[in-house]
């Protein structure tokens, strides 16, 4: 197969100050003259995602000059952000194959690179990469200023980047050479040997051959034969013409590892070669900050904040005949200055330490004790599980939008599906995740900003896997979404993986009050959604956000009604649709006092969201979709009352919990007292600055809305391809 090298340049949408900070390391690299370049003195390979089901295999390669990423599945940038691995330094991304498992986080990563101010990045991978980049380029309008493509040959081609040499050997394998550094002059030896200045003597360290490591992705037994017979790889095995590989990274399922052919191939490497295995046979947590927060919140209310779990594969580990190391998050293999494993960066997840830290917070335990005096009686269903409560991009505490509604013990529905939603399900349900996926019949996508739908494809694929694993009959998901989503899904289906059989599309606009439903099949799909979920009504309405953005309302046969706002400014259409609702889940992206910014970005503040719930006469209001500046907790406004609660990732509530939720605020304020104080100080500085600034010559927030909507990582697709998308609706 050919390989593709794709160079794209970006244009930042942020202020120039952020761009200058980002470009500092770029200027240093550009200032080096060719004669000054030498092999890097420090190089290491570091595990990001160890290959677990919730964090697919991804590898980070560090040198002084560049940073490299192998594979970019969903959740990769969240891991990098949590563990302080700078995305801004990343300038090369390699994909071992073109699947959602390896590239699901690529669109989000590109958007983040753009907003961070990275001037260019090189993407390398199989031929479908160019199609994937084009899909991303079209779907998230003009996220690149330009990009150029470079086709490599079918067998062995080289990509040189600051003296690390990358060879694409076969479809699923990379070989990486590290150039040796300049020989070092040894002045101490000159003094010992007492040579005079007239003699010319070479007094240098011995030549240091650059080590080689291999990255191998062998996803199925179909790839074993070409891997075993590849003549280039044979050079680095026993009896080969090159120095043996220092490290072989196996991104290989256990079922493939356990075959005699693959075991024999591993044995051809000399005993000095290290083997790193990255697959689902890893049981260590990656997102330790989430585990820490959930452990501490669990002290407040064990039912509302259940402890997180790990998914453990039922597949037995392969019995390998060569020494090997199982991957763990942040584990390193140092290639220079000396070859060695380093485990000091591996994150620990000590629940006892997390509890001890919370217990030492002043007044926290007292507030918890007071809160626990009240016990609410709650029926088991419906049950709402918040999987992502943050906005814009995944961060270490809050993932992006996703809310699971368990209607009954056999039926579930998902409201939005941002990147990493499946990973959140894994961490919430552990080994029961397949059972939960098998119950999922309906997905509602509010709009086509990246933080609300880019987890969809992964979820569909994992749901199919779950049904197969459980031996249950397959049935497509009912996807209620803006019809424009089909442009993205059709292109991915045609060029990457076949997924259209996974869905039955129902355009959101056809569920608006008074909408005419043009086709009989669409009417039957709507009736099927209602019957499947025991609903009497599923309604949508347009909201004030981007083009083709919707809220939705579910009315159950037993009488309860749930309203989900999606992203919106205060909107009367939501009020009218949700009159006297049982529960309103409304976005509260920004704090009070930031109304102008909320208007510019077409979001709501805390008090605005509460105001919508009051006008609606909702029985209870839960706020979510917080700006990532409120990572742990938002600022509370004076409008908070006994009908308002705030959401956290992995928070689980039932309607009977409504009286308890406002009582959680006092222990939450105690636990996060330092963060609240810091946010209040920041608000005071902002207000003082605003007071000191001169008037803006009559410029209002609303006058800037068109410009603001045309910028940033969340810009939505236009309707240029709407007619084509409608024609491609294979389900209607």
UniProtKB/TrEMBL annotation:
Its EC number is 3.1.26.11. It is an enzyme of class 3 (hydrolase). Its cofactor is Zn(2+). Residues 680-692, 705-718 have a biased composition (Basic and acidic residues). Its main location: mitochondrion. One of its GO terms (molecular function) is 3'-tRNA processing endoribonuclease activity. Gene3D superfamilies: Ribonuclease Z/Hydroxyacylglutathione hydrolase-like. Residues 680-732 are annotated as: Disordered. Residues 47-105 form the tRNase Z endonuclease domain. It is found in: Mitochondrion matrix, Mitochondrion nucleoid; Nucleus. One of its GO terms (cellular component) is mitochondrial nucleoid. Keywords: Endonuclease, Hydrolase, Metal-binding, Mitochondrion, Mitochondrion nucleoid, Nuclease, Nucleus, Phosphoprotein, Transit peptide, tRNA processing, Zinc. It catalyses: Endonucleolytic cleavage of RNA, removing extra 3' nucleotides from tRNA precursor, generating 3' termini of tRNAs. A 3'-hydroxy group is left at the tRNA terminus and a 5'-phosphoryl group is left at the trailer molecule. The keyword Heme does not apply. GO terms for biological process: mitochondrial tRNA 3'-end processing. The keyword Aminoacyl-tRNA synthetase does not apply. Zinc phosphodiesterase, which displays mitochondrial tRNA 3'-processing endonuclease activity. Involved in tRNA maturation, by removing a 3'-trailer from precursor tRNA. Associates with mitochondrial DNA complexes at the nucleoids to initiate RNA processing and ribosome assembly. Belongs to the RNase Z family. Homodimer. Interacts with PTCD1. This is Zinc phosphodiesterase ELAC protein 2.
